[in-house]
Amino acid sequence: MSSIALVGNPNTGKTSLFNTLTSSYEYVGNWAGVTVEKKVGSLKNGAGKLIDLPGIYSLHPLSRDEGVAAQYLIDESPEALVNIVDASQLERNLLLTLQLLEYGKPTVLGLNMIDVAKARGIYVNPEILQKHLGITVLPLVARTGKGSGQVLSVLEKTSSIPAVTFKLHYGELVEQAIEAIQHELQQTAGLPNHRWVALQLLEQNPVVLELLSKRMNTSHLMEICDACQTKLQNKRLALTLPQWIRSTRKEYIHSICLEAVDTTAQKPHNLTERLDSILTHRFLGLPLFLVFMYAMFKTTFDWVGGPLSDIVDGWISGPISDGASSLLQTIGASGFTHALIVDGIIGGVGGVVVFVPQIFILFLMISFLEDSGYMARVCLLMDSTMERMGLNGKAFIPFIIGFGCNVPAIMAARSIEQPKERMLTTLLLPLMSCSARLPVYLLFAAVFFPAQQATAVMSMYVLGVVFALILCKLFSKHLFKNESSVFIIELPPYRMPQLKTLGRSTWEKGKGFLRKAGTIILAGSVIIWLMSYAGPTGFNVDMDNSFLAKFGGLIAPLLHPLGFGTWQAGSTLVPGFLAKEVVVSTMNIIYHTPDTAGLESQISQVFTPLSSISFMAFILLYIPCLATVGVIKKETASWKWTFFSMGYSLVLAYMVSFIIFQGGSLLGWS
Predict the structure, then answer these.
(1) Hey, which family's this protein in (predicted)?
(2) Residues 108-126, buried b or exposed e (16+ Cβ, 10 A)?
């Protein structure tokens, strides 16, 4: 079965094309040596596997993870390549195309976003591109699927794709160096196209250099490179060899675009530019972003999500719970089994599942912001603020993803080029309010702030961001000194996301929560229920005499200065380390409530508005869940930083909750 690699710049519609061409896909572990997930899909026509390479601007990596593409081309050698380019940004995209053509494998060029280019008054002639590059060029609108059928037809038989004959002349000095390196490489087996390897070596690609150093003595190769660079410098042709190679490619690409691209009808101010003049405005940009975020929270928690959650709660506490009770009575189940299923499983898991509609709506709106192109602008807006704190704007994307789940957010931090900023982002991301904490906020906001639920919940999200920025400044000043920063981000054109793409993206984000409901939360609910059902004197004991009460009682004195020094509150925090979702399911079991309304009634008797704020702040800031701790260890490859992350968050949570409750009490709040 054929293996075909899909390659392209970020934001060129690569993911849309991948989704259109494949009937199904899966993550098959990580790429060798790095932590980027490997995404492989089955082509709809059954012609083979499509490998989705990470979005890159060049085969010369800026970050460790960007080296995945070059590593793949060296190690796995696909039968063919599909290179997708943005027709509205063709000149920049073709830099990667030339590097891929030099690789020598059969290649198809997907000329995507022809609709965007047309809207801007830019017309690209595919025939002229095909003539100059010597490969098949197919116009596409990957977002709608237009032209994807042609791509599938071409890929049906990779052997029928014409061989690449492209060869760019880099001048006599460089060509002599290429020939000399090729001669040296002849003695080494298992290398891809020798001319491509030679060019990558001359460009000082660290991935290729590392590969060659493992297979041969590279000292003579480096002498050839140095000699060539010295000759270029002596003739004042270029300062460095990579600069000469890049400028040669750019000149050739410019000559192609002069012939293939018609910009005579290009509009001076397109829609993207007009929207950017408002949405990225120096003074209006951030206030507008806050308005959008507030609207997102209102939609999620008040306007749409709240009513939907009430419906789900009605089903769980009504037909599902009553139906299970009737069935268990009919089959003569024991009191233990009845209590386990109805109170432990349905009560515990159901207490969390009622928030699924709100969580999916939140993911839907985050996906909309990502796919519309607005999220990249937010990073640009936040860059100056983030830079003052020790990060750059690119770190803001993982922060936003962290609102869904901290685990993929920490993985998203891999796109940050500088090790210092990647480490800082990884350490601070657990302070973002993930969807697992959301049920706790919603529960307490509904009880104590019913008229301002969206504001109360949003304040927790803002609090997490504020503390992340403050700690970022402290950590960058004292833990990571004298490290430089660079900010490079693609600003894609604004576009209306496709419903199919939004649905798929939302499901990808949300299914993890459902998976937790069926595994961790279910197991946690059963364990918590058993601890509440049993005690030193036996089974079916009073809740206050259970193992759970004894366990919570050990922690309660420590929590008393924070305003929630009860065994019930203490019992919810330790299971919350496994998964923050378990906090609400534990409360459902402890207070033995049939529905959300009953739990809210119990909560209102135990907590006060002030202690509820203190409790929510503690849930926000204290030790990350077990899955997040695991991914921090994986990403940092250090137990030191993993334990540091756990320790500082616990200390911060205690200090903030202490200040909130004690400070509020001194001011006469309750």
Answers:
(1) Belongs to the TRAFAC class TrmE-Era-EngA-EngB-Septin-like GTPase superfamily. FeoB GTPase (TC 9.A.8) family.
(2) bbbbbbbbbbeebebbbeb
The token pair at 61 is 């990596």
Give the CA-trace dihedral at 44, 45, 48, 50, to 10 degrees.
-40
Q: What is residue 408's three-state secondary structure?
A: helix
Q: List CB contacts of 341: < 8 A, sequence separation 6 or more.
A: 324, 328, 333
Strand locations in 402-543, DSSP E? Answer: 534-535, 538-539
Q: Which residues are CB-neighbours of 528 under 8 A, at least 6 positions away? A: 344, 348, 548, 571, 575, 582, 585, 586, 589, 590
User: Could you tell me the two tokens for 444?
Assistant: 């307490």
Q: How far apart are CA 180 and CA 542, in angstroms?
A: 85
Q: Which residue has the higher pLDDT, 505 or 460?
A: 460
Amino acid at 174: V
Closest CA relative to residue 138, chosen from 258, 48, 20? 20
Q: Which tokens belong to 639?
A: 């137990």
Average pLDDT over residues 569-585: 85
Would the pLDDT of 32 be above 70? no
CA atoms within 13 A on the CB side of 465: 18
Residues 6+ apart with CB under 8 A from 566: 552, 556, 559, 606
In 31-183, the DSSP E strands lie at 37-43, 48-52, 80-86, 107-112, 123-124, 136-139
CA distance 296 to 365: 7
pLDDT at 36 over 80: no
Q: E strands within 472-626? A: 534-535, 538-539
Separation of first and last alpha carbons in the chain: 68
Find the range with the poorest average confidence among 27-41, 47-61, 322-336.
Answer: 27-41
Span 221-238, pLDDT tens digits: 999 999 999 999 999 999
